[in-house]
Amino acid sequence: MRDDTYWDKSAETLSRNGIEKLQTGLLTSSLERAAKSKFYAERFKDIGFDAESVSGLADLGLIPFTEKKDLRLSYPYGLLCEPKDRLLRMHISSGTTGQAVAVFYTKADLELWADLVARCMYMAGARPEDTFQNLSGYGLFTGGLGFQYGAERLGMLTIPAGPGNSRRQVQMMRDFSTNVIHIIPSFLLRLMDVMKEMGVDPKKELSLRLAFVGAEPYSEEVRRRLEDFYGVKVYNSYGLSEMNGPGVAFECPYQTGMHIWEDAYIAEIIDPNTLKPVPDGQYGELVMTTLKREAMPILRYRTRDLTRILPGECGCGRVHKRIDRIRGRTDDMFIIKGVNIFPIQVEQVLMSVPEVGNNYQIVLTRENNVDDMIVRVEVTDRVFVEDMRVLERIRKKITYEMKNELLVTPKVDLVEPNSLPGTEGKALRLIDQRAV
Ligand code: ADP
Ligand code: ZN
Hints:
It is built from 13 helices and 20 strands. The protein is of the alpha/beta class. The N and C termini lie far apart (about 60 Å). The protein has helices at about 10, 15-35, 40-45, 70-75, 105-125, 140-155, 165-175, 185-200, 200-205, 220-230, 345-350, 380-385, 390-405; strands at about 85-90, 100-105, 130-135, 155-160, 180-185, 210-215, 235-240, 245-250, 260, 265-270, 285-290, 300-305, 320-325, 330, 335, 340, 355-365, 370-380, 410-415, 430. The strands form five sheets. Strands 4-3-5-6-7-8-9-13 form an eight-stranded mixed beta sheet. Helix 8 runs parallel beside helix 10 (about 220-230). Helices cover about 30% and strands about 25% of the residues. Adenosine-5'-diphosphate (ADP) binds next to strand 7 and strand 12.
């Protein structure tokens, strides 16, 4: 029998000292393995870096960073450290920000990955008697197979539903009494409208208990909306293909940030300009190092994800560091009228207005050298049938709230529910039409 609180008690209850000792040993072997790849062999040689000069975590700063462009330039095999006959799987990142990156796994890598995903789900309360529906893309995207293997490892009946087919998803949830789901936030928002159309009240007719939601940024306001509508607990799930996929960081039942599994990764937060580490509590770019990966170790990877380490200890007793909700990627930030804005800030304002529906889009335009931000916002069904004066009042309210929070006055366009384009994958929140 497993301990009821922990999936992997010895790993999850490591002390700070225990984590550091473990990391020190693993870092040395990860460096040795990495040096076998063409990419790291050349990089180390070019900069005159001797992997043996790293004797502990204090020397982490000596190790060069790895950037997304390094992975792209080394596509497909440049970071591979194992002969092909030891490989079992490859995935490709969803390519949200440009050319894709290929990631390879040995048998041990797949085992470890499944175990980490199972650990995350178990921590949040999933158990073998649950029925798990995975509404994530299967195939090259890591969210499908990553959760599939993790859920099977945990022992849940797993429905590989994949994305799309909204009505059928709801039907399956009902027919099989699905109680745990994994889904991206924009799709779970869209399913709210689908259920309303179908006349399904999830609180009464479905058995949903846990929703693992991640793969793209979403705000606390969206979490609240989802929890209220579905009657579920939403757990934030973070991962990226370069670090296996999902299972990198996850919320525990205390839901104060996501624990990064430090027995498998080293996490740092750096200032993206100076590249120096920032103190806990301060926002910066997350940098990750794999400690156990065989096929493709990656050192000090600049994720471009902006977050911070939450100081202090978590009530759950796990000392694995916690990261705050991801604010966005460094490249998501846009500048309008001299103000730096992340799409998530726009979402926060929108989603706290009750008349706002479940989809929105930000469009940046430039005319006669003047930049404008247009925010297209779906309103709820109830509002749309009401008269123009009501709509105008809502439009003004949103404009006012935006101006207050973001210091920029957008043009707000209210549109019908379900009229903005949806995608099967990650939502496209920002369309920048300004010529560069
Ligand atoms: P791509 O970078 O092409 O989207 P991935 O599918 O590997 O490829 O996605 C990983 C990225 O997704 C992360 O680097 C991060 O930007 C985003 N992401 C993953 N989980 C979350 C989350 N819980 N909150 C916000 N963003 C997330
Ligand atoms: Zn915790």
